[in-house]
Each structure stands twice: as structure tokens, then as C-alpha cells.
Predict the structure.
Amino acid sequence: MPLPAPIGPKMPEQHAGPRTFVVGPADDGTRLDVFLAAACPDLSRSRVRADLDRPGAVTVDGRERPASFRLKPGQSVTFTTTAREALSAEPQAIALDVVYEDAHLIVINKPVGLVVHPAVGHPDGTLVNALLHRQGPLQAGGDPLRPGIVHRLDRDTSGLLVAALDDVAHRRLAAQLADRSLGRVYLAVSWGRWAQDEGELAGPIARDPRRRQRMAVVAGGRPALTRYRVLEDYGFAQYCRVELATGRTHQIRVHFAHGGHPVLGDPTYGDDGRARGVHGPDRRLAEQAARLAGRQMLHAAELHLKHPVTGEALSFTAPPPPDFAAVLAALRAGGGEPRAAG
């Protein structure tokens, strides 16, 4: 059977051509590549890096400089970017673990490594490409690169995700997301020991002004609230149940890191070298857990919603995948203190 044709218009090309910036006092000593990543928020870090590798793409006061060049206030940086091929979402035969499906919505247990929708750096091989192959053309939501997508999971976060199969379902599921009646519960393993066995983590989230590829708790950002409860305590790490009250980009990862307890296996938000800081007999177990992780130990385990057409209450669960289970097994074998499930 022939595959459906690509749908919708292509994504407009990002601006190409020269851009000029003047280095301010706050960027004294900043690496050239870091400066450009922050100065060009419309470009991905991978695109900035690719353009930096082209001869003559960047100059400082008229002279070519390497990506590692340290800047000084008052210097003029000219960065010439190239045009990129516009993106489109096309059907691809990619297997999906479907938990539930009807004429209006589909619930998928997303594996680690699967990107949700096409974007710069990930033009295909995404969950959207798989949906188009499975369902045919989708006109749910109006975004040709994200048809049906109501919420997202990071590439290396596993677990449950709901997608709409028509405009009515998309609109009503998006409304549930906005009014916080679409419930999402995660499981996480985090470093250290929270001061309280359960609590709320609040802090506005926005793009990190110093490292644009990350998010951060930033004054003036979008309000965000995360609730956690410790399920098992291993001293140097804890296994937690986490509930999203809001749904900001990287919210759990940002709030946990901001609270001093980054998610195990998440170098983007402060996991680097944490195992080396564990002392005594737990050091070897911490290093083992870090090796087994290989990615952030974050899994979307529960999804609760009202059916967008019938109004029926729907709940879904998905057990952690093998890599997450292996980390838990190692920690439990090393000894841990379970908390009462509430």
C-alpha cells in the first residue's frame, strides 16, 4: 500500500546571513561558541556548531577566531549562518507501543530515544512520523510538524503520551492540559536526600540566559509547580513519585536540579560526577547506578484524562523500561529504606 503524501506546508527556513553582536561586560571571558548559542536563541546549538565549523563563518573584530576563543567587552562578533532545508513531517514505518486507541485519541508508551516531533537536528524518525504512517494524514492541532501532539516527553524520557486523532479531540485534550485536569505522574531516581519525604517545588521556568540549550528557574519565567513523594531512600539517592501541576519544558529535571537533587543520569542539569561525591561503602553502588542509567532516570508512569468525546474517565499505567528497572534492582540489592505509599 502506498504511503500517504507529506502533509501541510513546510517549516519556514530560519534566518540565514550575517549577524553582528557587540560583546557586553557580562560576557567578558565567555567562549565564542557559548556566546553565539546565547545570542542566537532561534538557532539550535547543533546548528550554531555546524556553522562555526565553516571557514569564515565567524569573525571577531574582522579576524577569524576558533570556537574556544575568549571574548572581551566591546569586541564585534559577526556570525554568518547558512540556510537549512525546510522541514516537513512524512510517514515512516516506525513501531509504536500502543496502550490504547480509538477513533479520537491514541495513548503510546514512548521508548527511550524516540523524539516526539520533527525539529532541527531531528528531521525524521520521530513519533509523529510513526503516527502518520499508522493513521494516514492527520489534521489535528494545526501544526504540520506536530499533528495530534498535545504534550511532549524528552527524547530520553520514557513513558505515556496521548495524541489526538482529530481537531475536536486535540482542542479538548489541550484544554485539559491547560486547566491541569490531565494528570501526569512520573517516576524518578534523584541524587541525594530531600529534606522532606514529600513536598512541592515551585519556581518560574524559562530559557537559561547563560546556556540557551537549557531551561532554568528564572525570575519572570512561566510559573511551574512540581509535587514529589519519596518512595524509597538509598541514602545517596532516592526513588520518587513526581506529579506535574504544570507542564513546562524539562520541568522535573529543572526543579530537581534547582533543589540540589538532579535526576540520576542527567548531565544537562548537574548529574556530572555526582557518584564521585559519594563516600564510604555506597561509592561503588553509586558508580554502578550511574553506569547502568545511561540517560535521565525519568519515566512517565501514569496518565489520567477525560475522553475528549465521551467524557469517560481514563487512566493508564506503564511500568518502567528495562534500564530503569535495572537501576532500581541494583539500588535495592545494595539496601534501601522503603517509604509508605500514600
Notes: The chain has seven helices and 16 strands. Helices lie at 32-39, 45-52, 127-135, 167-178, 251-258, 282-293, 322-333. Confidence is low (pLDDT under 50) at residues 1-14. The radius of gyration is 22 Å.
